[in-house]
Amino acid sequence: MTAIAVTIAGSDSSGGAGIQADLKTFSALGVYGASVITALTAQNTKGVTGIHDVPPEFVTAQIDAVFSDLNVGAVKIGMLSNAAIIAAVDSALEGYHQTNIVLDPVMVATSGDRLLTPAAIDQLRRLLIPKSLVVTPNLPEAAALLDTAIAEDEAVMRHQAHRILKLGAKAVLIKGGHDDGPESIDLLVEPNTTTRLSAERIATRNTHGTGCTLSAAIAAGLANGMNLTDAVRGAKSYVTAAIAAADRLSIGSGHGPVHHFHRQW
Predict the structure, then answer these.
(1) Structural domains in the chain (count)
(2) How far apart, in whole angstroms, are the C-alpha atoms of residue 153 and residue 180?
(3) 135 to 115, 161, 167, 218: CA distances (angstroms)
(4) Is 239 part of any domain?
(5) DSSP 157
(6) Region 99-124 average pLDDT
(7) Catalytic pick among 24, 76, 131, 175
(8) Is 175 a catalytic residue?
(9) 23, 104, 116, 192: which has the fewest C-beta neighbours closer than 10 Å?
(10) In this structure, are strands 183-189 and 172-175 parallel, antiparallel, or unpaired?
């Protein structure tokens, strides 16, 4: 049977993040990708210049069209820019009994542009975190979800992850890529276990779409039948290699994309 994953996220007109990054990741990892677009963004490697939200009822229509026909193995949820869209995604997914949901709580782009309204954060906490197999916040996103300071060490990262577990998630992958140590440390925190994943920090400005790519890679692993820990390990390895190969591309004049097809090209 063909492995299928769906991304529910915003579009990136420059192709490095969002829906475009997710579909590239699915394809690179041998998974058929389908999509539900929640917003159109006008953006490039230098920043976001405009956001046009898709009407909630059309988000619902896309979900119904895809999930009523395709045998979906995993779902990645990314940019949901307002409370009405979050509610629409929550309600529409209710009837399809998806258990492999990877929630990337996209709030701020690599460029620093805000992608989620403050009013929508509470909806994210109440509706979608409890539906998720794993939530994948970076350090600023975890702090925003909890309305607290950004974690400065692994002990605080672990504590914040456990607080997010209490919101209803089955697991939390808290990502340390925004830290500045010699290693990039991520913690996969489940109720009774913590898995530490480390990789050498790579000196490059081409990191556009790393969070989208990581969460999509986890979904691809789940769609391919992996358990969560193996899917996360595989995704971390894939993204690390994609960052390492990013400078082989010459895209734009700002934060360029990671190299999704570093294995194929």
Answers:
(1) 1
(2) 11
(3) 17, 9, 11, 11
(4) yes
(5) H
(6) 80
(7) 175
(8) yes
(9) 192
(10) antiparallel
pLDDT digits (tens, 9 = 90+) for 141-150: 999 899 999 9
Asked, for residue 255, whether it belongs to a domain, the answer is no
- Paired tokens of 113: 């542009």
117 is catalytic: no
Rounded to whole angstroms, what are the CA distances from 66 to 52, 107, 129? Answer: 22, 25, 22
- Among residues 33, 38, 41, 212, the one annotated as catalytic is 212
pTM score over 0.85:
yes
Annotated catalytic residue within 18, 78, 176, 209: 209
| Domain of 45, in residue numbers | 4-248
Residue with tokens 């403050």: 118
In this structure, what CATH number is given to the domain that contains residue 179?
3.40.1190.20
With respect to residue 265, please indicate whether it lies within any of the assigned structural domains: no
Residue-wise burial string across 16-44, b where 16 or more C-beta atoms lie within 10 A, e elsewhere: bbbbbbbbbbbebbebbbbbbbbbbbebb
Active site residue 33: no
Is 49 among the catalytic positions?
Answer: no
pLDDT tens per residue across span 210-232: 999 999 999 999 999 999 999 99
Q: How far apart are CA 227 and CA 28, in angstroms?
A: 19
Position 264 in a domain: no
* Of 41, 60, 110, 207, catalytic: 207
Q: Which entry of 15, 18, 176, 211 is annotated as an active-site residue?
A: 211
Give the chain's length.
265
Evaluate whether 196 touches 59 at the Cβ level (below 8 Å).
no
Q: How far is CA 114 from CA 57, 121, 144, 146, 264, in A?
A: 24, 12, 12, 17, 33
